[in-house]
What we know:
Jelly Rolls, Phosphatase 2c, domain 1, about 20% strand, elongated, seven-stranded mixed beta sheet, disordered C terminus, alpha+beta
Amino acid sequence: MRKIAALALLAAISLGSRIIQCEPAPVSHPPADTPFVAEDLGTGYVAIDGSWAFHPGDNTAWAAPDFDDTSWPRIQTGRPWEGQGYPSLTGFAWYRRRVTLPRDLSPGWQIGILLGDVEDAAEVYWNGRLVGSFGKVPPHPVWFGAGLSTPAIANLGPAASQPAQGVLAIRVWKAPYAYLASPDMGGLTRTPLIGSAETLAVLRTSVYLSWLRAHQYALSIALISGLISLFALLAWLRDRRQWMLFWLALYCIRPLALLLAERLPGVSWRLSYGSVGMIYAATDAALWFLLLYLLGLAGNRSLFKGTTICACIAFGCQIFEGSEQLFDWTQAPRFFLLADIGLTIPSLLVQLWPILLVVFAVRKRLDAARWMVAIFAMLADLVSNSLSWFSLGNRWTHWTLGEIIDTPLFTIAGNQFSVLILANTLLLVAIVYAVLRYEREQNRRQVRLSQEFRNAQELQQLLIPESLPQLPGMMITSAYRPAQEVGGDFFQLFPLPGDSALLVLGDVSGKGLHAAMTVALIVGAIHSTIEVTTEPVQILEALNRRLHNRLRNGFATCLVLRFDRAGKYLIANAGHLPPFINGRELEIPNSLPLGLIPEVQYESVEVQLAPGDRLTVYTDGLLEARNAAGELFGFSRIAALLENSPNAEQIAATAQAFGQEDDITVLTVAFHGRPQEAASSVGLELEGLPAEG
Length: 693
């Protein structure tokens, strides 16, 4: 930072001393007071070429037609005044010319003056009367940027009312120099035209069309880059973890943003100059972070920190520089220029950072698409930055390399192709190729993932009972509704000798494919455990030992019930929600879920059901269903729902309609005590698979 500040200070002092020494040195031209004769106006317009009377300074009396300007030097229009003997001239200067109009003009004509380009603003006077302006001169100046200026038409009035000879006076104002200033500037850089105001309006429109034709390729590149930026931003909004997409979106907006700020007709100089630096700084920073991710360097803390520091320096300097446009710096031009230089040089120095990033990534094995984007992005950035290095300040350094770099290599259909345009084109091709390859890889990954989910669905369908055993004196119903394609709930119902049964129900932490695979592990462990014991407590203890250190820091809740035809239930619980009996929650001992610690002591409780009693077990997806207002389904709604003795499918459907957020599993057991009324039903709903029941 100290070195950068020292370099900036030295450059500012050096350039500032050279600027202070550059004072105007007007060169006298021989006077010539030959009026301009506007012949051939029948074609619509003519250029007021030749020598004009010229004088630096400002005096509104110089607009008067009877003012004697014979002692003024003469100067040509269509060329800056600096190259004609007025170096470093800023502020006001006046052009004057006597114009003779033909007398055979159509009476219906409106005579106009077209100013195609002015550096920087002007007012047009005809016979002492203000008839138009190009931008606005001080005290509240408005002038245009480096792109196409808006041609201005000054209406002199009807042809019939014009005198045979008049005086055209143009008051021109040149803004103080900024760091971005060429060696030859100021004045009427295009020759004014006189003619029919209607014809001049058509000519002005043709200027816009010519500009569009000459920039149609650049416009296409900007629009395509803008679309890529939009798609990348939308993709990032879908997955905020993909920061590479965010930086890609920010970087790809550069061509469109610069086109609007630099090339759009009529953009004021202050808006253009104040925003271009910030656009470059923001998109340069985006490129640096994009390279970090493309080159696999995002995990390097030193490089990430260095990139952040460089981005802050560049953007911070450009924010301060852009904010200068909020003030009337024309009152203190030298201070503004020195501040402009001092803030620009540090931001130019940090633009060498991407070269260091590429050097660090040379030994990394990356695919061709990433290397293409990285190399062409760095190439486009280096060309753009080289233009900045050798174009900014060339008024005082007289470096010409920037002009050489910006010189068109060839022209196609009026569109000029420079090194920068070619570099941006190669970058766009590389980005499109990388995006297409990325999308193809994503599609392949999605197909594989869909197949994995399909396999998991089929596996889970095998793990969830397709039908429930019929037990004498009981009616059993079940419903299973996962929140995603596959879920983390499970239940198993095993008939036992002596008209008894064993019910195991539980819930795995997490959702999706990982939870479904854990369910498969648990169901397999349940099947192997009941071959050894059917005691609920022993089943939970065996499952806990098998699952310890196998759930990846997760856990599973579980409820085991063993019941018989006489209505006797033996229940053991491992962190699961207690069952309901006749709409009332049963109080049973609780303990830790499965898989947390290896040795846990579980307890069991014995419950006796009477004929007509109904037992309901469920997972927390029923309790935690949430509506649009954020309300939970809750225990009170469950109790109210169970008062009407619904079956499992009705309970699950009610919670799902309320607002499902988690897997929902419900089983009901209605005890009748009469063997002839045994029945069962199962409800299974898996997305993409038919329900069974």
